[in-house]
Amino acid sequence: MVGEIVINDIDPAIYSFWWALFNDTESLIKLIQDTPVNIESWVAQKEIINNSGSCNTTELGFAAFFLNRTNRSGIIQGGIIGGKKQDGKYLIDARYNKLGLISRVKRLAALKHRVRLHNLDALELIGLPQYQSRDALIYLDPPYYNKGSQLYRNHYNPEDHAKISEVVLGLETPWIVTYDNCPEIRELYTGAEVYEFSFHYSTHVKRPVAKEIMFHGNLMSHSPPSMRR
């Protein structure tokens, strides 16, 4: 059983969602319950994300949550499920079961006493003394190397990826890093233990080439790590 978990995200919108979940739970739940799941709401939440100076932390966090649930692949700056004409196979509310989402929010909020929340650059977080322990596990999920600027509001350039790899490979703390599977990232993590995976499999007998990759080090485990939804 994990005694404590640390959540960190440099994106103010993502951080605001976690802040609202743990510190303003009832207001977040009310927004989930009362906000219609339609194109008008999607446009309004998109406007909040793009002009976050005019809203409070909970409103910004909800906007990130709403777009995550109504956009394709959960990408904040991605396209809406079903398209703006809502003529696709799946529509805007395909992943927005209000009762189910509210139940999950309540379950997570009940664990707030075991969560630390930060809005820091990854290198700054890794450098904090309280997280440099053999009893801890650092899991990093940096922006993808390829198409990162299309997927994330806070993406990395090649130099940023190199800096992260240099620091991570020097850690004594157990660590895991996940990325898109590409030659540039493989080269940066040369020498680290590696595991390929994909969440999307073909219906054919032959499995597709893994699209994602996990590197890890200093793990005190008799079996390699694995990924599952």
TrEMBL record:
<dbReference type="GO" id="GO:0032259">
    <property type="term" value="P:methylation"/>
</dbReference>
<keyword id="KW-0949">S-adenosyl-L-methionine</keyword>
<dbReference type="InterPro" id="IPR012327">
    <property type="entry name" value="MeTrfase_D12"/>
</dbReference>
<dbReference type="GO" id="GO:0006298">
    <property type="term" value="P:mismatch repair"/>
</dbReference>
<dbReference type="Pfam" id="PF02086">
    <property type="entry name" value="MethyltransfD12"/>
</dbReference>
<keyword id="KW-0489">Methyltransferase</keyword>
<dbReference type="InterPro" id="IPR012263">
    <property type="entry name" value="M_m6A_EcoRV"/>
</dbReference>
<dbReference type="InterPro" id="IPR029063">
    <property type="entry name" value="SAM-dependent_MTases_sf"/>
</dbReference>
<dbReference type="GO" id="GO:1904047">
    <property type="term" value="F:S-adenosyl-L-methionine binding"/>
</dbReference>
<keyword id="KW-0808">Transferase</keyword>
<dbReference type="GO" id="GO:0009307">
    <property type="term" value="P:DNA restriction-modification system"/>
</dbReference>
<protein>
    <submittedName>
        <fullName>DNA-methyltransferase</fullName>
    </submittedName>
</protein>
<dbReference type="GO" id="GO:0043565">
    <property type="term" value="F:sequence-specific DNA binding"/>
</dbReference>
<dbReference type="GO" id="GO:0009007">
    <property type="term" value="F:site-specific DNA-methyltransferase (adenine-specific) activity"/>
</dbReference>
